[in-house]
Amino acid sequence: MERTPEYYLTKGLDMVVNGVAAVIFLCCLAYAGYALWDNWSILDGSENALKTMVEYKPNEAEGLSYNFSQLMAMNPDVCGWVVMDHTGIDYPIVQGEDNFEYLDKDALGNPEISGSIFLDCQNNRKFTDPYMVLMGHHMQAGKMFGDLDKYSDETFFQKNTTGKIYLPDRVLDLETAAFLTVDAYDKYIYRIQWDNVSERQELLKRIYEQAQYTRGEELTTEDQMVALSTCSTSGTNARHVLICRIVHSSASEEGSGKVYVETENE
């Protein structure tokens, strides 16, 4: 059979198409490999940073001030350590000059894409405000605040209710109260200054309006609260928020979480 010019043209086009397809496949394979390596390096970097810090994790038996003096010598921005029981949340807390500083720095101040758990820059670093917000990235494998996802399961939320915040001079016992999914620009949940009872009632109203789940006694304006916030996969601006009440502070004379100062107009 005689091969015509059209045959060679078709054959050549087939070879080009196959070659392009092979290049695209190899590029996709390379990108997938890079993505896996990148994810691994992020997780590995986060774990290595934590391994460096964990030996300085506050321990009540050893004396909180001793542990924190070492932590703060490494980075004066360290102001606490948060632990939520039965999750991977077990990290130092830092506070930067603004809420961007520790988005890409670890708790030692080194560049780190997984960032740090940080206290809102408007809060008092001594945790004396009536309402405080902790923020952290939503990382894979439950790293940083990724394990807040667990509380989106109602069974887990109802069964796992405790945590602690270690401070240089005391320990705050946390009890979970509500789990929410809100917008990143929610003007109530991310507002820090609540100067009087009537304003705090507005915050409580918002919490219960937005709550997916609640538990325990209803929050009151007498409660001191801590909100743990991270990104949610349900939307670009969506945020998971776990609201906790402080049920005990070792520095409180009455053994309650209420350690903030009431204002005169209350």
UniProtKB/TrEMBL annotation:
Pfam families: Sortase. The chain crosses the membrane at residues 15-37. Signal peptide: none annotated. GO terms for molecular function: hydrolase activity. Gene3D superfamilies: Sortase. InterPro entries: Sortase (IPR005754), Sortase_dom-sf (IPR023365), SrtB (IPR009835). Its EC number is 3.4.22.71. It comes from the Bacteria. The keyword Phosphoprotein does not apply. Keywords: Hydrolase, Membrane, Transmembrane, Transmembrane helix. It comes from Dorea formicigenerans. The active site is at H137 (proton donor/acceptor), C231 (acyl-thioester intermediate). This is SrtB family sortase.
